[in-house]
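User: Some background: our group keeps a shared notebook of sequences we're curious about, and every so often someone picks one and asks for a predicted structure to add to the entry. Today it's my turn. The entry only has the sequence so far, pasted here. Could you supply the structure so I can complete it?
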Amino acid sequence: MIFTVHMSTSEEDSRAVAAILRWAELARVPVDARALVPGAAPPPGSGVLIWDLESPEPLPEELFTGGRRRPLLVLCAAGSGRAIGSYAVHPAGFLKKPVRLADLKRLLDRYIARWHDELERVEVMCGGTRRSIPLYDLIWAESDRHGAILHTHCEGLQTRESLRDLSERLPEGVFLRCQRSFLVNRYHVRELRGGGVRLDNGRDVPVGRSMRDSVCSAVQELAQIWDQPIA
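Assistant: Of course. Here's the predicted structure to add to the notebook entry:
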């Protein structure tokens, strides 16, 4: 997936590209992020175009006309009044500056199914059927006496593979062991809540006493990532 950014300054361009790559690393989405070359037209297609309405260069409306495949358009500006004049190009969202990575995450989460075929996956045997599960969609997993249960946005999948074996096949740094019997996707961790972590689907998963310090550090690191400024 191609992300193209056009901000008010080259410094903001660089910051936005770095933040997008950090999002992609956690969401496990293959991404090519780049700043728009001055004077060049944004590439058409199914990628994402992030455009700062406070840039001196006007938004190229011809990109969104004439039957061309259009990117997902995300607009941003310091004043929300600027969004009114952009309705004609049907943006997917408007982000008020200062924009944090968490703001972009919330918007992209609504559209990630658009890139379903591009998401990184893990293959698991479930009931005699090999399932290919996007890592983004694997929210958390728990051990049970038959193996493990994998919880996605839509269903719970039973596998005979142990949670330990599964965790060894998952990318390092993406999933967090919060107890001997529980594994959570860091992308979906919202906050520490009582004796556990709350996921963005509202589920609370317990944290083992011996793992609490490492989980607290991981959640604090995540909070800093999502608070990272884009523009």
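Suggested note for the entry: The longest strand covers residues 72-77. The helical segments are 10-27, 101-109, 163-169, 212-226.
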